Amino acid sequence: QVQLVESGGGLVQAGGSLRLSCAVSGRTSSRYRMGWFRQAPGKERAFVAAKGWTDSNTYYADSVKGRFTISRDNAKNTMYLQMNSLNPEDTAVYFCAADKDSSIHYWASEWYDYWGQGTQVTVSS
After folding, report:
1. Nearest-angstrom CA–CA distance, 57 and 86
2. CA 82 to CA 88: how far, in whole Å?
């Protein structure tokens, strides 16, 4: 089984930056698609970004495009989400996820097989 553990969340002022990390352990595949999702209070879990573990394709929600960057360090088995120019609407619990089948439906949470427990990101105005 694959285990995912997020870290790096916290409280930041609007306009600030955070980098989230997702440590991946267990039996993994280089073909896994990795994704970031977030869930704000009272909202559905929403797609943020996705990236193949070994491919160069990246995808971003319109709401974060140009501000967030998804990346990976395969040697460290870690995925990152660099978040810049944060605003209060980015406040949410952020989850990393892995899709073992590398589905084309990168935006859909139901296609991901493994999930972390989430890390809270709070952006104050």
Report:
1. 24
2. 16
Q: Give the residues across from 30 on adjacent strands.
A: none
Tokens for 125? 């105005």
Distance spanning both ends of the chain, measured CA to CA:
40
Q: Are 116 and 96 in contact (CB under 8 A)?
A: yes
Rounded to whole angstroms, the Cα distance separating 23 from 83 reads 17
C-alpha–C-alpha distance, residues 70 and 86, integer Å? 15
C-alpha span between 105 and 15 (Å, rounded): 31
**Digit-coded pLDDT (tens) for 70-114:** 998 888 889 999 999 999 999 999 999 999 887 778 899 999 999
